[in-house]
From TrEMBL:
It holds the Pfam family DUF7977. The chain crosses the membrane at residues 44-64, 76-97. The keyword Transmembrane applies. Residues 1-24 have a biased composition (Basic and acidic residues). This is Uncharacterized protein. Keywords: Membrane, Transmembrane, Transmembrane helix. Residues 1-36 are annotated as: Disordered.
Length: 101
């Protein structure tokens, strides 16, 4: 057999025959294009959380800067902790919304 007769991977791709599907080993994994990825209620929940984290909470802090001190929060608590609470919730919600059972 000379080098010109060898079947290289590039030659197999161009011969017009479809490739067999790769065995996933029984893991049940599927290709991302075949997964059902509709923008359903999980997506709208994530949009609502983004609205709260990026607009509502900072807007409340901006419009009413003295309101948190009325309930006992200091300046640092107001500007560091209050935005962190919706940010952590937004991160957890994003993980929940993008994982499917």
């Amino acid at each position: 057999m000379n080098d010109g007769d060898r079947d290289t991977p590039g030659d197999r791709e161009n011969d017009g025959e479809p490739r067999p599907e790769r065995d996933t080993g029984g893991s049940g994994a599927s290709h991302p294009e075949t997964a059902d990825r509709d923008f359903d209620w999980r997506g709208w929940t994530l949009v609502a959380a983004i609205f709260v984290a990026f607009l509502l909470v900072p807007g409340i802090i901006y419009v009413y800067p003295h309101a948190p001190s009325a309930v006992g929060l200091s300046f640092w608590d107001t500007y560091l902790v209050l935005p962190m609470i919706p940010a952590i919730l937004l991160g957890a919600l994003a993980v929940w919304a993008t994982t499917r059972p």
